[in-house]
Amino acid sequence: MSPTSEPTADEPQHRSPDVDHTNLTSAPELTAADLGLTFEGGHRAIEEVGFRIAPGEFVSIVGPSGCGKSTLLRLVAGLLTPTAGTLDVGATSRDEHRPAFVFQDPRLLPWRSVTGNVRLPLELLGQTSAETAATIASALELVGLTGEDATKSPRMLSGGMRMRVSLARALVTEPTLFLLDEPFGALDDIIRQRLNEDLVAIWQQRRPTTLFVTHNVSEAVFLSQRVLVMTPGPGRIAAEFAVPFEFPRRPGLRAETRFAELTGEVSATLREVSA
Ligand SMILES: Nc1ncnc2c1ncn2[C@@H]1O[C@H](COP(=O)(O)OP(=O)(O)OP(=O)(O)O)[C@@H](O)[C@H]1O
């Protein structure tokens, strides 16, 4: 564990021989220094947040409820503007990095089929149905949905499948910056674990710079190269943990002593900062 308020990530340190680094040229580096956000009305959500996230890195953020995790993600997405400090997403325009956001609620349009939902971001980019067919098929395959699923209406799908559609819709534009806000929080344990395994595989294949917010420490450790722990609001980054496990992450990792030990350490720190 290392307390951190300044940018500390060191890209080579997080490189793993088991991970494909070939797509890293387009993924952004994220740097924050003394970052703060005070909402209108005076509520300080986060303050003095500092980090450096390497291009293509997978970082999870854990912290007590209300500590500002979603606020931090919204700042990185450009949905909020910092009221203090600096945040650099490695480009003058966030569009350059095609950011994609996934929320706990899949937010599918009920009147559109699975394909129609996944096509939406491409339509917003002005692409026609003929142009998008192959891209949509590839996004659906990436998240484990079949051609038969593609024709279904969202109401015919389980919660886990709806989340797969939400992931496909986010991935269809091939984002280089991937932001996920507690996406699997409403799912049962087994479905959640499968989606975790699939998400790691997708990240390995595409290598977007990824920020993942979760309340679940075990999920954070399973997925990430690094876990940041935030204090209660106004949130700061109190500690960070490097996750040294090789990729791909196998389901059996969760049963290993080294996994339990690291999860225990992160949980203990979270309890400490929350006390
Ligand atoms: N638009 C807003 N105006 C004022 N305060 C807000 C606004 N949005 C969020 N907050 C407050 O800012 C703080 C941080 O909220 P945020 O949603 O970022 O926390 P969080 O860590 O993601 O919470 P949770 O884990 O419960 O989802 C909370 O106290 C919240 O009530």
UniProtKB/TrEMBL annotation:
E.C. number: 3.6.3.-
Signal peptide: none
Comp. bias (Basic and acidic residues): 11-21
Domain ABC transporter: 30-257
GO molecular function list: ATP binding; ATP hydrolysis activity
Spans annotated as Disordered: 1-24
Principal EC category: hydrolase
Taxonomy, superkingdom: Bacteria
Keyword Zinc: no
Keywords attached to this entry: ATP-binding, Hydrolase, Nucleotide-binding, Transport
Residues that span the membrane, as ranges: none
The encoding gene: cmpD
Pfam families (UniProt xref): ABC_tran
Protein name: Bicarbonate transport ATP-binding protein CmpD
